[in-house]
Amino acid sequence: METFNYFKGTAVDCSLVSREVGVGELTDVLNNQLASASYTHHQKTIIADSVSQNEEKRSLIAFVGGLDITDGRYDTPEHPLFKSITGKHQNDFYQNSAVGVSAAHGPRQPWQDIHSKVKGNIAWDVMTNFVERWTKQVSGKSGSIYLITPDEFEMDEDVGDWNVQLLRSITDDSATFSDVMKLYTLTIKKSRKIEDSIAKGYIQAIRAAEHFIYIENQYFLGSAYAWAKDNQINCHHTIPAEITEKIVDKIFDGESFCAYIVIPLHPEGDPATAAIQEILAWQRRTMSMMYRRIAQALKETNNPGHPQDYLLFLCPINKEDVDDIPEELETPSSGSKAGILRESRRFMIYVHSKLIIVDDSLAILGSANINQRSLAGSRDTEIAVSVHQPEATTLAQGGSLPAGDVAKFRLRLMEEHLGGQSEVLLEPHSEECNDYVRGVCETNWENYISDDSPCVDGHLILYPMSVSDDGEIGDIEGVDCFPDTAAKIEGITSAMLPMKLTT
């Protein structure tokens, strides 16, 4: 509403559009109320004209990814907690996971996110998505949008050796679909046409993986049908199970493989609240399902390995030296949340990315989380791009890992999180890389929880849980709550919350 009021009375046409479903029968009335209260339009795009190589025509560019246009999203690879509050983050303080903490005391909530800039034909596709949504959703204003044509722009610019495909989660309640899409690319649920190409893109990429999978995501829960308990929960998208079965196939084939999954320490907000505790519980069941299945495969093949040799859940954190705290900050009250965090000088780096990289060959990035809300197609509206360089894929390289721009980007991310460089990161599927990552993470964890350690050298830790040889998940000895909180790491389900809200 703040944005709407800001542009009111100007030449900018701003419309507030809730996530709704069409009403065709009595049950749709309740579904519409639930959708408006629980689901969101989650796409994050900007489309604009730009300077082109052709002096006679402008270029069309678009931005697609996970970044919201709001406070607190700007950050640096250092992900500072306190030391930038009076500097580069002075007018952009953001903290939504520590109740009562303000810019007067700190810390800020560091932010990890991934976004892309695209141009050429793919930018036209992003613009088409906007037109389809505006035409469908903005009542009475469909004629206000200026419909441009490709002829007005330079669409054949040299944009490098990239193949880019647009992917979405969306229904015909939120967009006007073309006749071609209606015939060939959509599924149907209760007479609603659904595009779930993001989920399909993930599945295709995972099934094609030969060496490794690298994921950064705000959430990681799904494949509830395979959980040991609560398997009736409507969170049945297959991404976690697809990753697991890929690993199992590699174990039976006697090949090395590793999946690295980077998630936040806990969802954004107070981790002790019912909604976040339930999300943590669903996440725990997902992890448990995966590790048990991997352990079963190791046992069946007489493989002496450990489940974490093939699957690692990782979290970015930070801890600053006492000298990093600006003198201008006020001293918080002892025992307050700000006081506790000033004493420990540590906090999680919040992962808001929505990224998967497979074999340094292909990346999918956008707005979709790994949960049912984002991947079903019928809940939140989402958008993503799938990108690869044809000459820099395992297929083009005869099965070897390529060294193209996707590989460089993945390497840059891992080096930032780990706080250093190592040649073993060039082969993420190798035992040496797995050992290196776990070793750095264990050191970072020890420094993170130690009262005597002034800071951490890197940002990445293993998710705070134990994993046995049998794939059983438990608490680390003496650590059943997140640091500086009374919130249980394993989470707990709630009988009061609507399931669709937390899945």
Query: Helical proportion?
Result: 25-40%
Overall 3D geometry? Answer: globular
Number of strands: 18
Number of helices: 12
Please mark out the parts with pLDDT under 50 across 5 or more consecutive residues, or reply none: none
Give the overall average pLDDT. Answer: 92
- H/E series: HHEEEEHEHEEHEHEHEHEEEEHEHHEEEH
Derived structural class: alpha+beta
Radius of gyration: 23 Å
For the termini, the CA-CA separation is 27 Å
The percentage of residues in β strands lies in 15-25%
Main beta sheet: strand number and arrangement? 11 strands, mixed
Would you kindly provide a brief summary of this structure?
The protein has 503 residues and is an alpha+beta fold.
